[in-house]
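Incident review: delayed structure delivery

Summary: a single-chain prediction request sat in the queue longer than the usual turnaround. Root cause was a stuck worker, restarted by the on-call engineer. No data loss occurred. The affected request and its eventual output are reproduced below so the record is complete for anyone auditing the incident later.

Affected input:
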Amino acid sequence: MRISRKLLGAAAAGAAVALALTGCAGGGDQPSGEAPESEYEDVIDVNFGYIPDFNGTSLLAIAEDQGLWEKYGLNVTTQNFTNGPLQIQALGTGDLDFGYIGPGAVWLPASGQAKIVALNTLGQADRVVGQAGIDSVEDLRGKTVAFPEGTSGDMILTLALEEAGMTKDDINAVPMEPAAIVAALSSKQVDGAGFWYPALATVKQQVPDLVELAENSDFEDTVAFPTAFVAGNDVVADEPEKVDRVLKALRDAIAFRAENTDEAIQLTADFNALDPAQVEADAGNVQILSLEELDQLTEDGTIETWLSGMVDYFVGAGKLTEPVEPSEFYTGDLFLQAGE
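Output delivered after worker restart:
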C-alpha cells in the first residue's frame, strides 16, 4: 500500500490502542521452516510487549514464524497488554525491554519515559459513532459520549468536536475502559463514543444501525495516526547491541509483511488464536508501510514532522507542558543504522 500524498506532507497526531485481553506469554506456532543460521555466537534475552491485533502483533508473529529472532541471536519472550501506556510503565520498571504503542501513548516517550525506536503502520481504524438518530457530530451536543482517555478514541473525538466548533464541555464526556465502551454502546447506555475497530465490529453485531460520524480519513490533510515500537531508556542507553539486533529483526519482518500481507494476517491470527477473518478485517483499517517507505520517511524528515505535530497536539491537550524535539525521543538514526 502506498502512503497518500496528503499524509506525506502532514503534521501528525493521534492514537491507536486496540481492545485486547490481558495475559502473559505470546502464543503462535513454531517457525514453518528451519530458522536461518545465526551469525552471532551469543544469545541475548529480550522481553517484548504487544497488543493482540494486527498492528501490535504482526511483526512479532512474522519474526517467530520466520526464525528472525534466532537469526539475530535473540531469545524473545512476549507479553500481551491491553494498551500502550501499560507497556510504557513496564519499560520503566525494567519488566519489558521493548513494546508497541499507538500514537495516543506517544506523549509518554515525548515526556521522557521511553524511546520510539521504529515506526510501524498508519492506523485508519478510529471512529466517532452515535446511536441511531444521531446523524452528525453536532447532534452529540448535550449527549453522553464515552471515550478511552489518552487513546485514539480520545483523539478522534477531540478532532471531530473541534471541527464542529465544539469541545468536550459541549457533551457529557465520560472516560471509560475499552471493554466498558463495548458494553455501553451495545446496551445503548451511551449516546456515542470515540472508539475504534475491531472492537466496533463487535458492537455492530448488537447495534447494526450504529452511525459513523467521523473517521481518520476526515483529517488526513493535517493528521496521521502512526503506530510505533518503543524501548526502555536504559535499554537504548546501555544495550546498543540488543537494540540493533531487535531492529534488524523488525526490519526483516516489516519487509516480509509488506510483500506477504495475507500470510501476515494468518500468522497474526495463529499467534493470537483469533479468527483469520477478524484479523483480515482489522488489517483493512491499517495502512501498511514498506521498509523502503519507512526508510525514506525517516531520511527525509517526514516522520519527525508527524511527531512534531503530535507533540503540538499533546501540548494543547495538556499531556505535555511544553514542546519537545522529536530527536529527543525518536531514534530514527538507529533504525537506519540497523539496515546498513
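Verification: The first helix runs from residue 5 to 8.
Action items: add queue-age alerting; document worker restart procedure.
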